[in-house]
Amino acid sequence: MPYSKPLWSGRFKEPLSEIALKFSSSIDFDKKLYQEDIAGSIAHVEMLAATKIISSEEGRRIRTALKEIAKEIDAGHLDLSWEKEDIHLAIEQRLIQKIGSIGGKLHAGRSRNDQIALDERLYLRTAIHELQKLITQLQRVLLYHAEKYFRVIIPGYTHMQRAQPIYLSHHFLAYISMLDRDFERLSDCRKRANKLPLGAAALAGTSLPIDRNMVARKLGFDGIVENSMDAVSDRDYLIEFISVCSTIMIHLSRFAEELVLWSSQEFSFATIDDAYSTGSSIMPQKKNPDMAELVRGKTGRVFGSLTAILTIMKALPLAYNRDMQEDKIPFFDAVTTTRECLFMFSHILVHTHFNKNRFEDELKHDFLTATDVAEYLVQKGVPFREAHSATGKIVAYAVEHKKSLDQLTLKEFKHYSKNFSDDVINVLDPHKSVEHKKSAGSTSPNEVKKQIVHWTRALKNRKLSAQ
Predict the structure, then answer these.
(1) Is the pTM of the predicted complex or chain greater than 0.85?
(2) Which residue of 69, 72, 188, 427 is most buried, as measured by CB atoms within 10 A?
């Protein structure tokens, strides 16, 4: 049989039409998996030799040729055009060209069905490792800002309305915590993905005496996927991974939105360096936060990837179906987009400066300490609901008379509750407000310091999963 034909063509009397081959070819995108494909093939052939399915010499020749093929692809010397159908067949055809029919022994005990599942899991492990490194880098940038801007007080917001005074450091630390859960989700995803599917063959296993656990050990897997149909037919590890990427992108997008708002003239809370901003082709004065906007926009791409993989898998009967070839496009795009956005966001933040004076200006003449007034009354024995109502009336009175809380007299306070005394002045200062916080995890100086110390140690001692 001439090996220029597809390696599966023995059963067919007519060749696959060119338009059908072009339509079904996946090599344009699955060639990205060539390193994983060759690593899996080397482990597989070493197992075939160890179990005497092929001779040691045959195993040596195949292994040597596979390493040579990897170098050929690295150097761009191997034709990986659409006629090759997919990366698995392209490598195997090249192997047979190099060493003859011995190369055809490599595929014993496996199918492209379990081969692609293996390649994806290997690629996924590397992607998780890279994303966790980038998450850690971004967390360290946030921690740097938390230390640099410690004791800078800003208006905290809910519903995009000013709510209570908080430390800017507390704001940064919130994102460190979110990203840490993303890091943990990636670790959890890796645990479930780090099982070997190879040896499941097409769906039913093989009659050859292969040793799947040996291959698992060689490739650093924690074990094998026990059910051969499950091994080739599910992509829940990709669904889970892209879902984690979507959550990461939500967190980046939320912060990106804040940078877009904060860098506007209306807020002027932050300034992004020129190197990470762009101008307008028509309006000379413009300085646009385009990098932050792109992070926000690219979030939609990752969400789209999640929708795509869910839709591909939603109604497939067991076991493998060709629909699953389409899983790689959303998978690769989610990896690339999330990786680029994490990398870019660290650089954006390094080159963003936060305006302490503007924050201070916004703390004056406002109602940020209204909750402190209510809690003041609670400490005087007033039920919280009564204290809340009285404080709300005080705020309404101040708004009507165009005053801030610190401009009201004691007499005006007492009009709404006899429990007010001269010491109410102590709860009207935003700086005092944060200092008076007592609950664990709050924006008090001690709690913020505690969080900074915790994350300094945690990020210093962090160990990343092996690729």
Answers:
(1) yes
(2) 69
